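User: Could you check the structure of this?
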Amino acid sequence: MTTDKIGVFDSGVGGLTVLRELYRQLPNESILYFGDTARLPYGNRTQAEILQFVREILNWMSVQGIKMVIMACNTSSALALEIVRSEFNFPILGVILPGARAAVSMGKRIGVIATPATAASSAYRHAIQEIDPNVQVWQVGCPAFVPLIEQNRINDPYTYEVAKEYLAPLLEQQIDTLVYGCTHYPHLAPVLRAILPRSVRTVDPAVHVVAAAAQELDILGMRSMAPPQPTRFCVSGEPNQFAQLSVQWLGCRPLVEQVCLPVSVPLQQVPLESLE
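Assistant: Sure, the predicted structure tokens are below.
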């Protein structure tokens, strides 16, 4: 099993932040990446929908030769992780607990930016205050961020204005630490850092979930020492769109396959123009 792949999934390109950390921290591991692009964004979905999607993805991954799965999606981690862990016979790691541990080690006044579903679940608040009840936590749901990132509008002036609006209530609370509560959000780091005071430290849970994965592989004796196979990229939506969007974060255009999972009709998408 040591040479089996690590499965990584997200609703779209957000999980590439986890993939980059896997390349950095676990360079010998082979990776299977799945982006559920036909059904993004996840942050507006119900728990029942998220649970259905996660089960479909994990069932598909289970026959692809994987030894571990990382949910590179905070919404899935918040709403489905504890339920599905007992349903599959391989380790499944989420991003919330590693991110919470890192945040507690950095500050006492912690802000969390997340999708509406993750924010509404209070998963980060619960995880952080379970570790240290004296830490104060404020959360903000950021519904526009994932669509803006997936549409490659990171450098759009509108994105900067939206970010200022989302961060304002957290800055009013004089936070000392900000958690990127969605794996898409590190892509916005230049925008967010331009708004945040220099004293505010940021937490990218991708870094810490991969460190947790490395530790788990060592404990189970499943870390690969052989050269890795090329990463396999799969999506449920349009492969070319994902490939093009990935170039700026991977440094190359990946070969992307389309995988036809049982896909329900997507939610009615709100045009971004209506958000402006």
